[in-house]
Structures are given as structure tokens and as C-alpha cells.
Write a structure and sequence with these properties.
Aspartate Aminotransferase, domain 2, seven-stranded mixed β-sheet, single chain, 44% helix, alpha/beta, 2 domains, Aspartate Aminotransferase, domain 1, 470 residues, four-stranded mixed β-sheet
């Protein structure tokens, strides 16, 4: 009997959280229920999601930037349908897939420096793992340096480069010899590189955690130090690449910056098929695949699948045909201007970090006594709590999905699809203004929700502490 996916979806409608809780991840389901993200989605198209009640939502979470071109883009769907309808074989194993070769050629045309070779995999964290291994093979050195507050993935090697302790807890020791350096600390970086055991300096030109945009001067100085001590530069463009920043790569905003290895994923396949890429120079690649018996010394079973390669080619086509780099800059400026215009009116709102359509909205301590008390109270309960005062009402009251930008930072991040309309920008700006008005009334409903969530967080901490003691 043929499998009926629609029947499965109909049967599980409204029950999916119970099933997921029982068979997959009960803790994640608990989190979703507490913050109100336990919606039953039934449809997605473009920048929008619909729940089972027919309510339309604006998706500015975009699965952490995967849906840079929105959902169900016809060009990308069409490319995938062509592959499904063809008889062309994929995953032969001992083969040189033509779609992979063409996608590699197209990617190398778009990146800075003399990067001419691509390794394909299934995700961003796999792209980083490949970059770590490639840099070790090319330099003969065992160590890496990463930045504090960095995020490069959650597999063991990538986790070793993670600047957030909460992700690392329970999994250590990780790869030995890795060091975290604060952005801007050139003296500390040089002292570490001077030991000449560092294979690579790994960085995000725009750190996803907090939307921290690294300065031109800093990264060019880092490049000089890396060249001086023969350390490779690995540029993580997994979230900031594919036009997100208003350039194909965020590092291309900096004249003269030429990383040795670039990692891409997320938006690379347009939201359909897992796909990652590690782009480098042939000289580095040849240090890994240095003899015929090592021709597949680093590989993955599901790399270079026809669907993934076709989706990647279609995503690049959409980026060009719809002039989305220009659109990202224009729309990003519209967001920035709208948010900055609100700053003088609202004490909690401090500013915006923006490049293209990678946007972080900053909040901070207010000036008036009553709001200071509210700020202190919430942060005493949990320093991760305040940003939820924006994320939750944006979802509940205005049907917009957003995210907290990182651990213990009062920043809300939005990653809209690059092809959204001006009306979508206005929808968001109007919603943010309404949330700000209500948040500046203390006491009020927004603070009641925060206290409720804070109570859950406090109970969870107490349970964790008791567990640690026993």
C-alpha cells in the first residue's frame, strides 16, 4: 500500500507535541510550551507560516537563516522536481557527480581570493569539521583559536570552537589545544599565535550570537597576524553567507580580506535539502588528498546528492535573478531607520545592529526608577529572561516569529527572507512599537508573563542544583 503522507499529517494534527515529547526530545517540548511556540503549523509559503486555525504568521526566525529565499520558492522547487523526474542516477559512490562539479565552479566564482576547490557535506557543523581537518593537514599543527561568543556547530570538533560554556557542559574534554580570544584583543591573539602551534583562526565576520559585527580594522589586523605566523583563516559564513549581509559573503564587506577557507550552509540549498560546503585553495586540499590511497580520506556518505546540488544551483540562480543582494541592503536600511526612530521614545530600546538582513535589536537598562526595578527583578531571576518579553508578545499578539540572539544578551535577532515585501517590514515595525509601549507599562501584562516564565526557570535551576549535589 502506498505511503500517504497527508493522512499521517492529518492523523497527528494537534498531537505532534505529545508524540515528539514521548519519542524524541521531551525537554525541548517543555521549552516550546513555556514560551508559547507550541503551534501546530499546517502550511508555509514565502515569508509566512499558517497554523491549524488559519492564522498567518510572519517568519523572521527562518529556521536560523535557512529560509533566506522563503519557503516553497518556485525556482528551487522546480529544480528539485526536474531531478526527481529524471532517470539520472545519484550517489553511485565511485563517481564524479556533474551537478557537484558545476555547483563548485559557481561557488568559487563568487568568493574572494584564489579559492578554487570545494568539499561538499550535509551541514554547517560538517563544513567546520572539514575546515578543522584541512587546516591541520595543511599546517601540521594541532590547535585552533576561536572568538568568545562564537558558534560554529555542535559536533565534537565544532563544539571545541564554541564560545558558550552551556553548550560545552557535559561533553568535555573536547579537542585539546583550542583557545578562545575576545574580539578586539590583538595582543592576546598574537601571544597565542606566536607559539606557532595554531593551525587556524576561526571566525564569523558577523557573530550569530548577538549579531556582533567585527570591524574591518580588527579583521585585517588579524589577517596580518595570521600571515605572519603562518596560521590559516577559516571564515564561518554559515549564517551570514548567501546574501544575508547584503553581499554574497559578509567578509566581502572588507576590502582586502581573503580567508584561506570559507564555510557555507543553511541557505545554500534554499531550505529543502541539507547541504554544506567548505571552500579552499587547491594547495590546502592537496595536503588532505595527497595520494591515490587517500583519495577519499575525508568524505561523507550523503555528500553531493543530486537533489542537494540542484537546490544549491537554483539558490544561486534566485539570488541573481531577483537581485537579492541589493534588496537585502535596501530592506535592511528600512528596518534600521524604523527601529532607530523608536529609540528616543522607549527606555528599554538601545539600538540596532544591522548588515543587510542580519539584524539584532538591542535592549538595556532603563533610566526611570520603576522600570529600573522591573529590569533588576527580571535579571535577578534569570539574565536570559528579558529578551523573551519581546519575543513572546511578538508571537502571541502580532504573529511574528523571532529569536533571542544568545545566552545572557538582551538582544532579539531577526533573519527575514531576502525577498520580503515592504509591507512585511511595516508589519514588524508596527508590532515592535506596540510591544515597546506595553513593556514600558509596569506593572502590566507583559511583566506578568515574564514572572510566570521566570518562575519556571527558577524551578528548573533549583532542580538542576539539587541534582548536582546528589
Amino acid at each position: 500500500m502506498p505511503l500517504d503522507i497527508n493522512a499521517i499529517l492529518a492523523e497527528t494534527s494537534g498531537k505532534n507535541f505529545d508524540l515528539f515529547e514521548k519519542h524524541v526530545n521531551p525537554v525541548f517540548v517543555k521549552v516550546l510550551r513555556i514560551i508559547g511556540f507550541n503551534r501546530s503549523w499546517v502550511r508555509g509559503e514565502g515569508a509566512y507560516l499558517w497554523d491549524k486555525n488559519g492564522t498567518r504568521y510572519l517568519d523572521f526566525l527562518a529556521n536560523w537563516g535557512v529560509f533566506t529565499f522563503g519557503r516553497r520558492h518556485p525556482t528551487i522547487r522546480g529544480a528539485l522536481q526536474q531531478v526527481l523526474d529524471s532517470d539520472f542516477p545519484g550517489w553511485v559512490g565511485f563517481d564524479a557527480p556533474p551537478l557537484a562539479a558545476v555547483l563548485a565552479r559557481e561557488l568559487t566564482k563568487r568568493v574572494p581570493g584564489n579559492l578554487d576547490t570545494v568539499y561538499f557535506c550535509n551541514s554547517g557543523t560538517e563544513a567546520i569539521e572539514a575546515a578543522i581537518k584541512f587546516s591541520r593537514a595543511a599546517t601540521g599543527r594541532p590547535c585552533t583559536v576561536h572568538l568568545t561568543k562564537s558558534f560554529h556547530g555542535l559536533t565534537t570538533g565544532a563544539l571545541s570552537l564554541n564560545g558558550e560554556a552551556s553548550f560545552r557542559r557535559g561533553f568535555e574534554p573536547l579537542l585539546p589545544g583550542n583557545s578562545a580570544i575576545a574580539p578586539g584583543d590583538l595582543e592576546g591573539l598574537e601571544a597565542r599565535l606566536a607559539r606557532r602551534d595554531v593551525a587556524a583562526f576561526v571566525f564569523e565576520p558577523i557573530q550569530g550570537k548577538g549579531v556582533n559585527i567585527l570591524s574591518d580594522e580588527y579583521l585585517l589586523s588579524v589577517q596580518n597576524l595570521c600571515r605572519k605566523y603562518k596560521t590559516l583563516m577559516i571564515c564561518d559564513e554559515i549564517q551570514s553567507g548567501m546574501g544575508r549581509s547584503g553581499r554574497f559573503l559578509a567578509c566581502q564587506w572588507i576590502d582586502g580580506l581573503q580567508p584561506d577557507i570559507i564555510c557555507l550552509s543553511k541557505a545554500l540549498s534554499g531550505g529543502y535539502v541539507p547541504l554544506g560546503a567548505t571552500i579552499t585553495r587547491r594547495a590546502i586540499y592537496d595536503c588532505v588528498y595527497d595520494s591515490m590511497d587517500r583519495a577519499i580520506v575525508h568524505a561523507c556518505t550523503f555528500g553531493m546528492g543530486n537533489l542537494a546540488m540542484a537546490a544549491g544551483l537554483a539558490a544561486l540562480t534566485v539570488l541573481d535573478d531577483e537581485n537579492l543582494l541589493t534588496r537585502a541592503n535596501e530592506t535592511g536600511a528600512r528596518f534600521r531607520q524604523g527601529i532607530e526612530a523608536m529609540v528616543p521614545r522607549f527606555e528599554f530600546l538601545k539600538g540596532v545592529r544591522q548588515r543587510g538582513l542580519m539584524i539584532g535589536i538591542e535592549f538595556g537598562k532603563p533610566d526611570s526608577m520603576s522600570l529600573k526595578a522591573a529590569w533588576a527583578m527580571v535579571n535577578k531571576i534569570d539574565e536570559n529572561l528579558f529578551a523573551q518579553a519581546i519575543v513572546i508578545p511578538l508571537l502571541d499578539d502580532h504573529h511574528i516569529l523571532t529569536q533571542v540572539a544568545g545566552h545572557a544578551v538582551p538582544i532579539v535577532k531577526i533573519l527575514p527572507p531576502l525577498n520580503i515585501q515592504d509591507t512585511d517590514v511595516d508589519w514588524f515595525l508596527g508590532a515592535l512599537e506596540d510591544v515597546m509601549v506595553k513593556l514600558h507599562k509596569f506593572p502590566g501584562p507583559a511583566w506578568e508573563v515574564l514572572m510566570k516564565i521566570g518562575g519556571h526557570a527558577l524551578t528548573a535551576k533549583q532542580r538542576e542544583n539539587r541534582s548536582a549535589i546528589t
